[in-house]
């Protein structure tokens, strides 16, 4: 299959060169920002440098229920030789304490309540005893600052605590709340138009004789969603220039980036690339990438907007997406991808690459007796979707490497849990 | 701070023992399933074994535009010595072809169209020439099966293609579509009630003198969402038995799992644990875990429902969540967590653990001159949220390890991208 498909491509561009050409022809894409409530900002990309408008804590705060004291008054205190302090008031949460604590004095204080002026430490309630006289015995010494959360200890007012381009995680949401923020400015999700082409395609699956369910569109839309974009469904176009052209124009109008699958194989001529070239300048920049699968991938820019022409086979479309679309979406968002899990495993079969091409091999990683083995899944064609649903990892064979021998230690990008062998226990 | 907090705990239970006790007291929790449209099933957990009700492809299908032939008729064909075949009809997509292909015959066929009976291969259009006579010259041989996607090549009808407990990813959605499925049965998201306790807490942040913004609730609700649960907001309760009790009961009624923060420190007595014990049997099972931070974590079961009592400090609450709540949510969902990225880095400072405790150290991993360095972030208190927003990784110091020397190679769980040093280039 791939042999035949190759014939249309006189040359294949290396992945990095293709990316460089593509990005070089793209204007600096700056998506607008939008304000969202903090509680819905999880996993969104921060569009502002967040400067603290208040310190955290915003006042000296007790970390304990107990007595606010001058630490020096407790030095040397013990169970047998307590310090005796005069109880002169109380500091409650939500109230500014009026009392000033002087040497020899103590103020009852609750967890989270402001430490009154003059006091520099809090003795926990368990180390004290209130006498009938109203005075209090202290049975353990505290150091200055003990059990006090100092103003600005966590965040100092005016400092930048989170930088634009950051993907927001739970702790960040907590920080916004601590800073009293209700809304946050995030990058508007890039809108990614997804168009499938092919006379053979149908939205229905079963029950339509001789038609093929359009797998690419739902898969690609899910991939767009996964990397933080907003999929825009452009539907299916027949192998018809006018129809494809109309839908691509619609995509360019409504989306920030347009994906179109198929219509680029040899049998159909360069239907999609030719149409793209009629839509605007500079048009197709790269067509044919030195990668397997996904050779028939095309990269284009039309009037400042990127179009990626993806192969028609779902597996090829997915690898082309990971290689070109995903990095572009992160670029548009102004962020970096999350770190990806990688493991070392032993190949239990020879893994063969295609010389001069970067080869992506689907593997199944199994743990047996505490060792990890990667089995390359046979791929009679890039059309075999189940090689991807059965795999839990990807092995990359670089352009200048022939392959990996059976038994070689190889690096695997793991996207699902390792399968446990019969002997291995689950935790 | 931690010294004081420890005093209330006579003994601390090891993490694995605590989990065993906890799970042992829980009935087998089986969440109901729900049918959702395939397009909204991304990242949901499959509740059914998916059996293919149709083969994929469901018929022998051409992978090319060209001619359906009997492969044997093309053997030896070349540019100078073409095979001459009689063109006897056409196979279009969406139509069952009526023609039967015999030796010496060929049928025009479109990509995705059914291969007619008798034919066993497809010659791509570029290797053919149609003559004025209507016959066709074939310039290249094809092997039997070439350019034909055989029925069941991807999926054979009747086989189980996806198993329950699987987290659905884009390729899985594609497979459902290929199988003609419109809906899929997934596990209903576990409802996780989140309650904060503390007189000092307020929903407002800034502008409320002497109050503390409730950071835990939004953080924990985001964490619940991240691991596939459905957060249920139970609000804030004052340090008041009746109020906490009422809200916990409400939580037990509406949620599958209840989280309650604070109210378990020494200063406040065992307020929350005591209340939990009044709610039902067996009540508190473990209180005090041999981990740092998060020692004051409690695990309880009340009338078959789990309650986790989390420490009041946000950082402690988060580590306790990761250690006990997240695995429980995955258990309820009947799935395994995605693989987590781990890297090796050199510690650029000594990292100290607490003997007998599992210590979780927040680190910042930087790349400098191609090498990775992990810097432990100083933690004056578990209250310091910014140690988590500044960190990109976690180092675990096991119970029986004193710590790691400066320069030692350590394993880091990476949850944000590595920071690049001045000299390192970004890609």
Could you give the topology of this structure?
2 copies of one chain form a homodimer.
Chain A: H1 2-6, H2 15-25, E1 33-37, E2 50-51, E3 61-62, E4 66-69, E5 83-91, E6 105-109, E7 121-124, E8 128-130, E9 136-138, E10 148-149, E11 160-162, H3 170-178, E12 183-187, E13 191-197, E14 201-202, E15 212-213, H4 216-226, E16 230-237, H5 241-254, E17 257-261, H6 271-279, E18 282-287, E19 291-292, E20 298-302, E21 305-310, H7 314-333, E22 342-347, E23 351-352, E24 358-368, E25 371-376, H8 386-390, E26 393-397, E27 403-404, E28 409-414, E29 419-420
Parallel strand pairs in A: 5-6, 13-16, 13-17, 14-15, 17-21, 19-24, 22-25, 24-29
Antiparallel strand pairs in A: 1-12, 2-11, 3-10, 4-6, 4-7, 5-9, 8-9, 18-20, 20-21, 22-28, 23-27, 24-25, 24-26, 26-28
Helix pairs in contact in A: 4-7, 5-6
Number of domains of chain A: 4
| Overall 3D form of chain A | elongated
What is the subunit organization of this protein?
homodimer
- CATH architecture verdict of the largest domain in chain A: 3-Layer(aba) Sandwich
**Backbone CA Rg of chain A:** 32 Å
Number of H/I helices of chain A? 8
Largest beta sheet: strand ordering of chain A: 7-4-6-5-9-8
Termini separation of chain A comes to: 43 Å
SSE class of chain A: alpha/beta
- For the record, the CATH class of the largest domain in chain A is Alpha Beta
Give a quick account of the main beta sheet of chain A: strands, pairing sense, barrel closure. Answer: 6 strands, mixed
> Helical amount among residues of chain A, as a percent range?
10-25%
Biggest interface: A-B, 103 and 104 residues
Low-confidence parts of chain A: 1-7, 423-427
For this structure, what is the CATH homologous superfamily of the largest domain in chain A?
Answer: MoaB/Mog-like domain
| Number of E-type strands of chain A | 29
* Amount of beta strand of chain A: 25-35%
What is the CATH third-level topology name of the largest domain in chain A?
Answer: Molybdenum Cofactor Biosythetic Enzyme, Chain A
Overall average pLDDT of chain A: 92
């Amino acid at each position: 299959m791939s042999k035949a498909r190759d014939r249309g491509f006189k040359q294949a561009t290396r992945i990095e060169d293709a990316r460089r050409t593509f990005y070089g022809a793209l204007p600096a894409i700056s998506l607008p920002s939008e304000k969202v409530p903090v509680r819905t900002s999880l996993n969104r990309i921060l569009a502002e440098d967040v400067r603290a408008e208040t310190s955290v804590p915003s006042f000296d705060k007790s970390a304990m229920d107990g007595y606010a004291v001058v630490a020096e008054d407790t030095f040397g205190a013990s169970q047998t030789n307590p310090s005796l302090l005069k109880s002169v008031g109380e500091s409650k949460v939500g109230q500014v304490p009026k009392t000033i604590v002087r040497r020899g004095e103590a103020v009852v204080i609750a967890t989270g309540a402001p430490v009154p002026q003059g006091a520099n430490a809090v003795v926990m309630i368990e180390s004290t005893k209130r006498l009938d006289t109203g005075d209090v015995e202290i049975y353990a010494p505290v150091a200055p600052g003990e059990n006090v959360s100092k103003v600005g200890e966590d965040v100092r007012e005016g400092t930048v605590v989170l930088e634009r381009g950051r993907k927001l995680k739970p702790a960040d949401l907590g920080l916004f709340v601590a800073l009293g923020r209700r809304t946050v400015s995030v990058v508007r999700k890039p809108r990614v138009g997804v168009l499938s082409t092919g006379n053979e395609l149908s939205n229905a699956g079963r029950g339509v004789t001789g038609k093929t369910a359009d797998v690419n569109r739902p898969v690609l839309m899910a991939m767009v969603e996964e990397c933080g974009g907003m999929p825009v469904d452009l539907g299916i176009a027949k192998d018809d220039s006018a129809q494809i052209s109309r839908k691509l124009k619609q995509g360019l109008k409504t989306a920030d980036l347009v994906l179109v699958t198929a219509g680029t194989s040899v049998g159909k001529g360069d239907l999609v690339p030719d149409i793209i070239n009629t839509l605007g300048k500079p048009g197709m920049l790269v067509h044919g990438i030195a990668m397997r699968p996904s050779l028939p991938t095309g990269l284009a820019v039309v009037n400042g907007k990127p179009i990626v022409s993806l192969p028609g086979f779902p597996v090829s479309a997915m690898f082309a997406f990971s290689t070109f679309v995903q990095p572009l979406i992160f670029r548009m968002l102004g962020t970096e991808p999350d770190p990806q899990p990688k493991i070392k495993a032993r190949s239990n079969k020879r893994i063969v690459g295609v010389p001069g091409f970067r080869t992506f091999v689907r593997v199944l990683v199994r743990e047996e007796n505490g060792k990890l083995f990667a089995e390359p899944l046979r791929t009679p064609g890039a059309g075999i979707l189940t090689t991807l649903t059965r795999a839990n990892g990807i092995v990359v064979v670089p352009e200048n490497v022939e392959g990996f021998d059976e038994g070689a230690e190889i690096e695997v990008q793991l996207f699902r849990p390792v399968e446990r062998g019969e002997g291995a226990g689950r935790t």
